[in-house]
Amino acid sequence: MESRRKELIQQYKERKITGGIYLIKNSRGGKSVLGLTTDIQGSRNRFDFSKKTGMCTDKRIENDWKRLGADAYSFDVLEEISKKETQTDREFERDLADYKELWREHLSGKGEIIA
């Protein structure tokens, strides 16, 4: 049992870390949220859970979420970025922030984007 535990810990440490830039998009013309994450799959899972439960996890869009319903929103991955083996967590987050800024510029003028 101890060797299995050590194996699982080693697998966790060696896993590929994928972050990214996402948009929680309002399909009915309301506010959309541009975000970044160091764990794109975890963020997608949280969003899916919030849709299933009807609970909004972002205060900035909570009123629209309640008024329009969870089905008015989608989680769109704009870009996935893998953490390099040589990158620190801080360097990875800075790279993600740079990508987010590029996406903010790209999306400007395409509806109300909260970042």
- The secondary-structure element order is HEEHHEHE
Helix content: 40-55%
Shape: flat
The overall pLDDT average reads: 91
In the predicted model, the low-confidence regions spanning at least 5 consecutive residues are none
Count of helical segments?
Answer: 4
Structural commentary:
With 115 residues, this protein is an alpha+beta fold. It has a single domain (17-114), classed as GIY-YIG endonuclease (3-Layer(aba) Sandwich), CATH 3.40.1440.10. Helices cover 46% and strands 23% of the residues. The chain has four helices and four strands. The chain has helices at 2-14, 40-53, 62-68, 89-107, and strands spanning 18-26, 32-37, 73-82, 113-114. It has a four-stranded mixed sheet with strand order 3-1-2-4. It is flat and about 50 Å long. The N and C termini lie far apart (46 Å).
Which keywords apply here?
115 residues; alpha+beta; GIY-YIG endonuclease; 4-stranded mixed sheet; 4 helices; flat
Write the layout of secondary structure elements.
Blueprint: H1 2-14, E1 18-26, E2 32-37, H2 40-53, H3 62-68, E3 73-82, H4 89-107, E4 113-114
Parallel strand pairs: 2-4
Antiparallel strand pairs: 1-2, 1-3
Short note summarizing the structure:
The protein is of the alpha+beta class and 115 residues long. It has helices at residues 2-14, 40-53, 62-68, 89-107; strands at 18-26, 32-37, 73-82, 113-114. A four-stranded mixed sheet has the order 3-1-2-4.
